[in-house]
Amino acid sequence: MQDVELPKKRNNLKTKLLPSLFMLLGGSVALVIGLIQQFPITELLLVVFFALLIFAILGTIVKSVVDGFNMSMNYMDYFEDNGDLVEKGNKDNF
Questions:
Q1: Which of 8, 48, 67, 83 is found 20 to 30 A from 27 (Cα to Cα)?
Q2: Which of 11, 2, 31 has the alpha carbon at shortest distance from 75?
Q3: Could you give the CA distance from residue 44 to residue 46 in angstroms, rounded to a whole number?
Q4: Which burial class, exposed, middle or buried, applies to 56 when counting CB atoms under 10 A from its CB (0-12, 13-18, 19+)?
Q5: How far apart are CA 43 and CA 37, in angstroms?
Q6: Domain extents for the chain?
Q7: What is the pLDDT of residues 13-36, one digit of tens each?
Q8: What's the rounded Cα separation, in Å, for the pair 9 and 50?
Q9: Measured in whole angstroms, how far is the alpha carbon of residue 89 from the centre of its chain?
Q10: pLDDT computed for residue 23 by the predictor
């Protein structure tokens, strides 16, 4: 009997950019709101800095959760022994 070595689970999602995108979105929203409210420049810089910090932490948490879900999936369930893709579900569905 041959020993079949299963491929290592790897992250094939492009989640590397999630923290940066969260920071960009949160910082730009904080900047626009601060400009509309006419904050003084020093307060505005502090608000944007803390918004960037908070959204960087949130983006990192979301990235680790998404990576954790992706790494826990067993992709070998979707393939037959010869490498063909197996369609899961009811055959009557269109």
A1: 67
A2: 11
A3: 5
A4: middle
A5: 11
A6: 18-64
A7: 678 888 999 999 999 999 999 999
A8: 36
A9: 27
A10: 95
Number of neighbouring beta carbons within 10 Å of residue 13: 13
Strand intervals (E) in the chain:
none
Q: Tens digit of pLDDT for each residue in 39-73? A: 999 999 999 999 999 999 999 999 988 888 776 66
Q: Which two tokens stand for residue 76?
A: 């070998």
User: Could you identify the residue written with the tokens 């995108």?
Assistant: 21
The two tokens of residue 39 are 């904050």
CA-to-CA dists, residue 56 to 8, 41, 49, 51, angstroms: 29, 22, 11, 8
